[in-house]
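Field reference: "sequence" (input) and "structure" (output). Example, ABC transporter ATP-binding protein:
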Amino acid sequence: MDVKFFSKNKLPIFFQSELSECGLACIAMIASYHGHKINTASIRKQFNSFSMGAKLRDLMDLASQLYLLPRALRVDLHELGQLKMPCILHWNMNHYVVLADVKKKHIIVHDPAIGKVKVPFSKVSESFTGVALELTKKVSFEEISVENKISFRDILEKLPDIKSPLIQIIFLSFFLEAISIIPPLYMQFIIDGVLLNSDRELLLTIIISSLAILAINVIIQSIRSWAALVLSVKMNLSWMRNIFHHLLSLPIYFFEKRQIGDISSRFSSSISIQQTLTNYFIESLLDGIMALGTLVLMLLYSYKLAIISICSLVGYTFFRLAWYSYLKEITEEQLVISAQENSYFIETLRGIQSIKSYKKTLERESAWFNILINQTNIDVRLARFSIAYKFINTMFFGIAQSMTLWVGASLVIDSLLSIGMYMAFMSYSSQFTGRMSSLIDNIISLKMISLHIDRLSDIVSTEPERTGICKALPCDKSNIYIEFVNVYFRYSDDSEWVLNNVSFNINSGEVVAITGPSGCGKSTVIKLLMGFYYPQAGEVLIQGVSTKDIDKDTLRDLFSCVMQDDFIFSGSIMDNIAFMDDSPNTVQVVKVAKQACIDTKITSLPMGYNTIVGDIGCPLSGGQKQRIILARALYKNASVFLFDEATSNLDKETEKNISDVICNSGVTTILVAHRDETIRSADRVIDLSA
């Protein structure tokens, strides 16, 4: 079942959004090929993703739920052509791709990480592990339609109220376009009326009126440009803020499963959508209206000449639409590869110390350069398309212009057109083809918005983290009682239980240490208390109220939390300790800095508490950063302290001093720790390995 260009079924390319969902994306591609209206996001939402990657058995089970019959095979390289395509290949021992076609010298695969790829047989043996998975329709096949994406209409509905500036721009643009009809008439009057009759008075009248129209044109253009700027700024500020607000409201797992460069790229798609709407939407509307008006005038002059322009335009339109799918495909690959390069670059900067320590700068540079080569190759493909498009554009309209010159000159010779009418027609023809080709190009650009909409939908279609309705707890916040009741939790349906029937309670004012081997769920306990996740079974109770029922802001207001991967933000030390407090209490900042044993270091710096720091390029050591983060938690003065390895980078004496401050504060404290000194400072120990 090979994929043909004109076959009824077309194999799409779906890219993975999460790091470990290549198998999910491959299933989505083949399911879509067989008739399901489905994509990666909808499968992830309906069946959940595989948090640590998928086994072949996982993919087979998922395919069965989609009415596809799986058949796992072990095949040699020369047997690839005998497989029922499209099928899934196990690739590089840790990846899945879709085999789309087998040629004499290469195969074509749809790689959910980088797109459509031609792989020479000499390279296939280096990547293909010999395991393939054929997927065919079951007899009981039923089409599923659960595409999880937003439409162009959804985008327009989320825009701010832009009616007033939009109407103003359309009116002014229409007026400017109407004025553009007048110059060809001037040309006709000058040639037929002024030059042939030597009428200087008519010439003066035409020149004066043309200067007046020029002045009006310049004024209106300035007003329209200002209105367009107002519209663009209004859309940008309001819409972008709404999207960023939604991004920040997403569950924590959304960010844990994605690369930062990919999230940044998807968010940037909103900018591309906004620019396309403001630059092309109005222009396309006016081009269409004015092109029709110009065509009417051309037909009035000569229908024979008008037909030549129309035919050239039909040919150009066919070419643009025929190549649209190819353009969309490589543009999407460009966006994905660019996001990967950005992620790799940021990751390299964040890990530069480890890279230098292990002398892996050359290896890192080589890997980055390979990504850059892939990105450059796609850029070259786009450039080749642009060259071909310009060539076809010039050829079509150049031939049409030559034909118009020939036929038009013949009509003038036969006295069917005056010279002035002929010159006016040529001007209108140029306007018509220019507007219509611009309209077609803009329509293609507007259609290309679907790429950015699909990428942005990964953000805006994700539901914000859920929150309860309880905004006030039944007791005083200073008297907190925490209880875990038969809690079961795992991060995905295919993973093992992290917490398995865990029960314990923590009384107000207690200092409790949570211990156990790595991976037993200590940090998970903190995340469940914070409402980042909720248990699959059992309850996490605060004052007898389930965290599922407590408003997330009310819940998180109870805790001062220090996690293992917390970091310093760009800004002053004062800003980091007060953590975006609109009116930071300087006295309190200094107090908690002393409690965290960091005040002496801060005051020794030239700028003191106003010293600028950041996650990268910070003049502080790891232990000093950790103490600033601890000071941040103390500054909040919450009802419960949650410390996840919060003193792991500190020396024993400093750790003891800080532990004494925490233990003597009377605040309920939960310590996730491995060190004996930290554990001994607690009133009670809960061992999750028990």
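Residues 1-7 have pLDDT under 50 and may be disordered.
The first helix runs from residue 22 to 33.
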